[in-house]
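lol so apparently i was supposed to do this last week
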Amino acid sequence: MHSQIEELYQMVCRRDPYEREFHQAVHTFLLSIDKIIDELPEVTYHKVLERMTEPERVIMFRVPWMDDEGRLQINRGFRVQMSSAIGPYKGGLRLHPSVNLSIMKFLAFEQVFKNSLTGLPMGGGKGGSDFNPKGKSDAEVMRFCQSFMTELFRHIGPDTDVPAGDIGVGAREIGYLFGQYKRLTNSFVGVLTGKGQDFGGSFIRPEATGYGLVYLSQAILADKKMDLEGSTCLVSGSGNVAQYTTEKLISLGAKVVTMSDSSGMIYDESGITSEKLAFVKTLKNVKRGRIKEYADKYGCTYIERVEDTPNPVWDIKADYAFPCATQNEILKADAENLVKNKVKLVGEGANMPCSMEAESILTGNGVLLAPAKAANAGGVAVSGLEMAQNSMRIKWTPEHVDSELKNIMGNIYRNISEAAETYSTKDNFIDGANIAGFLKVSRAMIAQGYV
Ligand code: NDP
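anyway here it is w/ NDP bound
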């Protein structure tokens, strides 16, 4: 690493010593940028990297809400507005007990470059709370969302910052958040994406991250004369991204044999069919149940998750793997298992699902790695299309949105593979995504002066 980049990284670590996830995201990114920094003296002169690693604004706030027993509960809310260089801040809201400033900053940082790769005019941000929606009633979730928005509304707007969903935030939560924003501002505008179909939501937004992941993976495989049809695939998670990744894989003739949640995984050797997937959707989205109920119903293997042991999802023989749960779900031992089982591609549906060690084991053993910044950009891309439809007060058909999504994912693949070949090594899509995403944001920052 160049000494100036190493020093910058050390400074980022020193300044916020407890932000491990943020350090990891910055480190992977800087390793890629290190390869081109000599050719970009203006980036050094204008301190672009120093500015990119410091959020434009961080908002942290108290979220008081009343539970069903009439007890007052207090959570912490966040919105990290990382970069508005190429458009309004854009990125999801996460509701999960693990949420802290480090996780918010890593997600917001990744979002900047992901949004740049989509080709749409969107800056990067991320937000959420350590509120745990699991086990809460609809009324409790609504009261939490209303309280959260009662502070957040003053910091967002259709031309300022447009949040969406992420872990723990689906159609129900977006509906409650939107309702409260509308009530507080007396305006019906496209301030959130992932809205319900009846009030400004785009067709294909729920499907977009999973479908986009499969479209991009398909493009990579096609270049290698490989195919999803007839293949065996591993999927982790059973939420939004996992469900629609599985749906698209099934429709393309692949056999998906696993899904999981934080309690355990199912291994269905005969393959998850469309009918079984419909059961998972109702189980997770409506009944808010556990994936174990799939094994109980269909009589397949269920393996309970044991903390600090390798994740059993990644120890099953398959052709391709799609981590769709959360960050750092593939660690060193998991990567070794994937290599041992001759998995040929890992498509990252989740954000930063591989540790840096896992990444280098995978790529060092010739596994094709489609990094999250590119691979899961389909969700935010269709969010961008939802913003466009809201501004124009029109609604495109599902077919139109799906074909736009396919085009965007195809363009992302071309951009990251060209950047990999030009600036790094062929098929190093991590470098390709970091560099292609970075160049555009960097040019915009320099053009706009010191802001
Ligand atoms: P959901 O809340 O719909 O589903 C998350 C799934 O992951 C659940 O099955 C959940 O299990 C599991 N999970 C969450 N945290 C953990 C954990 N710490 N350990 C094990 N399993 C866990 O979220 P999404 O599907 O929307 O998001 C999944 C990933 O995709 C995240 O990394 C997110 O940032 C990323 N992503 C999402 C986009 C979107 O459009 N929704 C866009 C781009 C990226 P359980 O129910 O037990 O908690």
